[in-house]
Amino acid sequence: MTALRVVHLLACPTLTGPGAAAVPMILATRSAGAEINVFLDGFRPDNLARLLKNHGVYTDESLSLSTIAPAWKTLRDVQQLRRIFKKNPPDALVTHTSHDHIIGWLSTRGLPKHVPLIRTLHSKRSLQPRLGQRWLWSQTDAVVCHVRQWKMFCTKPLVFP
Known about the structure:
By secondary structure, the protein is of the alpha/beta class. Helices cover 38% and strands 17% of the residues. Strand 5, helix 5 and strand 6 (142-145) form a beta-alpha-beta unit. The termini are far apart.
C-alpha cells in the first residue's frame, strides 16, 4: 500500500500566524504515515522551512508563493504547480491562506485526476465575504478548523450573508 501523498501550500515564511497553526497539522499527518510535501513562500525565506526540515518534512521554496510577490511570479507559480501535479498528482492539496487557496484552485483545475482541495481556517478574516470568496469556498472539497467556535463551518455548508 502506498502512502497518502499530501501537498501543502503555505504563503507564510515564518512560524507565526497560519505557519504556527499549520506545523502541528503537517507533523501529525506525517506521523500518521502520509508523504508530505510543503511548498513555502520562497520570496521571503525565514524560519518555517528550517523547522519543518529539522522534523524531516520535505519543503520546497522554489516558488514565490507570496502575497507580496508580483502577479507574474504568482502566475509562474501556478504554471509550475500544474506541471508538477500533471506528472505526479497528490492525493490531497491543503491550503492555509486565501492566497494559497486561489493558487491551489488554479493549479488543479482541468487536471486528468481530480485533486481534492482542502482549506484550513486559521483566521476569522478568511470567513469575511469578499469578492469571489463565496465562489472559491464552493470549489473547496473540505475545510479544517483550528478554532472550536468555527466548528460549524466544518460541519455545515459555508454561507455568507
